[in-house]
Amino acid sequence: MRSLERAIDVLEVLEDAPRGLRLSELARRANLHVATTLRILTTLEARGRVEHDGTHYRAGARLLFGAHAYLTTSPLALAARSVLQDLSSETGLTSSVFVRTGAHRAIIARVEGSDPLRYALPVGERLPLHLGAGKMLIAHLPEDELEPLIAEVTPFVTASGVEVTAAALRRELRGIAASGFAVSRDDRILGGRSVSAPVRGADDEVLAAIQVAGNEETFPTRRTKALTIAVRNAADALSRRL
């Protein structure tokens, strides 16, 4: 089991290094001995999970098969598609579903609206939990899970230059938990606007966040109320399908 854990550690380091890493740097980030790291990489490269260009290691193409298997078998990902299509058609905005993966979030489904976003945000992108729709995913976490995360990310500065302290983030998360939706402006992208709502399972656990996103032109302040209602309705519809 320890060998399996080490291999996963190496893969997780590579997932967060899109330009690849040299062996020594990869070993340091994985907190492993260089010789141990090399043995793991050699095995993973032979199985197509890692690629090596002579100087740098990076995630291999065969990892795509695992991602595809998740997207084609996950009840959440499968149910999300039609709900997002309806939401994007209704709002004209790009709609997405995010899930929490440890200290990050990832898009598992996305549908472009008639006003597509100006920046790339592909399925599988690793994104922060303390910005945008990520706040919807952590607003309901128990204190023993939430406090370490807050301590790790705060203070931080949003794309608009606003500094957010731990106390400010706690207040915002309490408001999100109470209201059942999260509105974000200039959090991760300057000019970005979004509203998200929770997708819940049978036991009322928050499984995902559904979001519509736009910019100052496509998502002016006057649309906030209507978009919030549309997103919450979509979240309820997706929750009922699970």
Helix content: 40-55%
Average per-residue pLDDT, rounded, comes to 94
Major sheet characteristics: 6 strands, antiparallel
By CATH, the architecture of the largest domain is named 2-Layer Sandwich
Query: What is the total number of structural domains?
Result: 2
The CATH topology of the largest domain corresponds to Beta-Lactamase
Strand arrangement in the largest pleated sheet: 5-4-3-10-9-8
Query: How many helices in DSSP terms?
Result: 9
CATH classification, class level of the largest domain: Alpha Beta
Name the beta content range. Answer: 15-25%
What can you tell me about this protein's structure?
It is built from 9 helices and 10 strands. With 242 residues, the protein is α+β, with helices and mostly antiparallel strands. It has 2 domains: 2-61, Winged helix-like DNA-binding domain superfamily/Winged helix DNA-binding domain (Arc Repressor Mutant, subunit A, Orthogonal Bundle), CATH 1.10.10; 66-241, Beta-Lactamase, CATH 3.30.450. The strands form 3 sheets. A 6-stranded antiparallel sheet has the order 5-4-3-10-9-8. The chain has a two-stranded antiparallel sheet with strand order 1-2. A two-stranded antiparallel sheet has the order 6-7. The longest helix is centred in the last third of the chain and has 18 residues, at 224-241.
Helix-strand layout with pairing:
Elements (H helix, E strand, L loop, with lengths): L1 H14 L7 H8 L3 H13 L3 E3 L4 E3 L3 H11 L1 H17 L2 E8 L2 E8 L14 E3 L5 H5 L4 H11 L2 E2 L5 E2 L1 H14 L2 E4 L6 E9 L5 E10 L8 H18 L1
Antiparallel strand pairs: 1-2, 3-4, 3-10, 4-5, 6-7, 8-9, 9-10
Helix pairs in contact: 1-2, 1-3, 2-3, 5-9
